[in-house]
Amino acid sequence: MKAYRIVSDAGVPEAISRVDVEEPGELLPHEVRVEVHACSLNFRDLIVTRGGYPRNDTSPVVPLSDASGEVVEVGSAVRRWSEGDRVMPNFLAKHPAGGLTEAGARSSLGGGLEGVLAERIVASEEALVRVPAHLSHEQAATLPCAGVTAWNALTSAGLKPGDTVLLLGTGGVSVFGLQLAHAAGATTIVTSSSDEKLGLARGLGADHVINYGNTPDWHEEVLRITGGRGVDNVLEVGGAGTLERSLKSVRVGGTISLIGLLTNPDEQPSVLPALLNAQTIRGIYVGSVAQFEGLAQAVEANRIKPKIDRTFAFEEAVEAYSYFQQQKHVGKVVIRVR
């Protein structure tokens, strides 16, 4: 079958190669074979092309963690799934529920384990989640990493109506966070350096927007918007370069959901505000199958439709990587496999 592999640490596009790979043979009793219909990209996938990071540096490896597809064969002991079911694999293949374990953390698709940018994949029946009925495969393929990460960040912080949530940028996690927080009745604040992207965020439900290119001390604007109180939760995707301002944006007793590292990881921000204001900084590493099921239920109940920026054909996967690397997108970049 056809698949893509990351064959070096040369980065985009040199590291990515389309190859013929041997399809897994006879299924084990609890395994499921899935025909992949669509995949999507995350920032982490760019890092994998440059050699990866701890627990995500298997090489060579079939890339990408996010996919949606159709069950075409089930093992002899499978009871949860039948041929024709539409499913999505969890980002962490061995993280069914509860707290993250070392084994779970090492089971990331497309980094620690073989990923999903292939015509077919094989997964444990326990590592799959049903596609929300109203979503296409392209839309569903955006959920496993960015969607679950945003859901974990918001629900673990106890999101409730009336809360105020700060979203940094308009990438996949931030846009999902915006859509989920808006659906839950929270007030949302979105930052970006692009007025065009901020306009799109408004269309997705953002209550307040801040252009950090025009307002470099954007934490002061956050405090103005919240009447000096600060927000309840920040989905912090920037990392060290934005963490200090995020800490200044959060209320006493609030939460920083630490998700990404888009800025220089070697910067050393002061965490004194977290100490003085009893704030929680919580690392978010995607989530469990149980959390994914919770997200899927929320997406279906609220008829949330993921924001797709652009879709590429399977044969254009390298071009999809190159486009994604430019970071001009709002929402998700999708690869249609069939």
TrEMBL record:
Q: Which InterPro entries match?
A: ADH-like_C, ADH-like_N, ER, GroES-like_sf, NAD(P)-bd_dom_sf, Zinc_ADH-like
Q: Name one Pfam family in it.
A: ADH_N
The record's listing under Gene3D superfamilies reads: Medium-chain alcohol dehydrogenases, catalytic domain, NAD(P)-binding Rossmann-like Domain
Source organism, top-level taxon: Bacteria
Annotated Enoyl reductase (ER) domain ranges read 11-335
Q: Where are the transmembrane segments?
A: none
Q: Name one GO molecular function term.
A: oxidoreductase activity
The protein, known as: Putative oxidoreductase
- Organism equals Phycisphaera mikurensis (strain NBRC 102666 / KCTC 22515 / FYK2301M01)
Taxonomic lineage is: Bacteria, Pseudomonadati, Planctomycetota, Phycisphaerae, Phycisphaerales
